[in-house]
Amino acid sequence: MTLPPKIKVFLWRLCHGAIASSLNIHRRGVQCDVYCVNCCDKVESVSHLFLSCPLAKECWFASPLGFFPMLENQESFLDWLWDRLARDSEETLCWIAMVCWTIWQRRNALVFDQKTIPLEDSLSQAARLLKDLKEVNNSSTETTTPSLVLWQPPSGSTIKINSDAAKISDNEWSVGVVARDGMGDLIFIAASKIQAPNDPSLAEALAIRWTMGIAYHNNLMDVAFETDCLVVVNSFHNGSKDASSFDNVVQDCEYLSKTFNSFTLTHVKRDGNNVAHHVAKALHSAETEFWFSNFPSSVLNLVHNDALIPKGAESRDYGEKKGSMK
Ligand SMILES: [Zn+2]
């Protein structure tokens, strides 16, 4: 939960009945007035303080929550709190914590300083605390977002091969393959058509199997395959054991992977796979085609972008791919 540390600690203590209400102190053998300092009407138990005291109700109502705890099947305020912790959204829980904190702060000001803090002041301070914390969290998320969306060159003499499948019709898919070295230079590109039912994951798996065959026949033995289809990557690494068409293709890939000296299959986000996507979308024809030189200028431009754009740069989008599930 996104809460200031002192309020997290307070919430933990509250949930574990470790709040020094007058009744709790009295139970530990300390002689003190056990009546609620707010209303002077009831014994100050935790349930009274946070639930049934008129000042507590006022605080719950005036907060953005706009309700106060109603016990349903719960025996006490703490049971209610545990229930809410289990099922409420983070935003609601943050406010539940802030309201409890506010009730507790106002009570302490009265007990120890004989001071009445206006409810409005307490709640706007709580709102400010939450807002500030949210802003700090948002800005730290923005600066630490990893650049996984971007294509990264392979290390050493490994060849990185990106593949992608794009839907042409209900039973037909185009496949794009792009092989590059550690300098980001093209080794080859390939485009083809495959027959596959309307199943994006199966089409992607078929594209990878086809790509592995090409790599093998071109004697590329240290390879890093990359796809933007997470389903294929997860199935490959977790072992696919069913007899479905998809699992059969993934099992073929597992078998083929052992023929390479070094082999990896990893997932890259769509923007990191955009050259293969472009090849699949733009260059497929009736026949399978290979380019080992004289690469199309549209491909060269995209490859150039991949090599130039530094880590953490703005993510790019080259249009939505229809009929594919990523
Ligand atoms: Zn009271």
Secondary structure blueprint with pairings:
Layout: H1 5-15, H2 22-27, H3 46-52, H4 54-62, H5 77-87, H6 90-113, H7 119-144, E1 159-169, E2 172-180, E3 186-195, H8 200-217, E4 222-227, H9 230-238, H10 245-257, E5 262-267, H11 274-282, E6 289-291, H12 297-308
Parallel strand pairs: 1-4, 4-5
Antiparallel strand pairs: 1-2, 2-3, 3-6
Helix pairs in contact: 1-6, 3-4, 4-6, 6-7, 8-10
The structure holds zinc ion.
Zinc ion is lined by residues 36, 38-39, 41-42, 48, 53.
What's this, in brief?
The chain has twelve helices and six strands. The protein has 326 residues and is an alpha/beta fold.
Keywords for this entry:
326 residues; alpha/beta; Nucleotidyltransferase, domain 5; 6-stranded mixed beta sheet; 12 helices; 6 strands; 14% strand; elongated; disordered C terminus; binds zinc ion; RNaseH_domain
Describe this structure in words.
This is Ribonuclease H. Pfam families: RVT_3, zf-RVT. Residues 170-281 form the RNase H type-1 domain. With 326 residues, the protein is of the alpha/beta class. The protein folds into two domains: 5-144, no CATH class; 159-308, Ribonuclease H-like superfamily/Ribonuclease H (Nucleotidyltransferase, domain 5, 2-Layer Sandwich). It is built from twelve helices and six strands. The chain has a six-stranded mixed β-sheet. Helix 8 runs parallel beside helix 10. The relative contact order is 0.10. Bound molecules: zinc ion. The site of zinc ion has 7 residues, from loops.
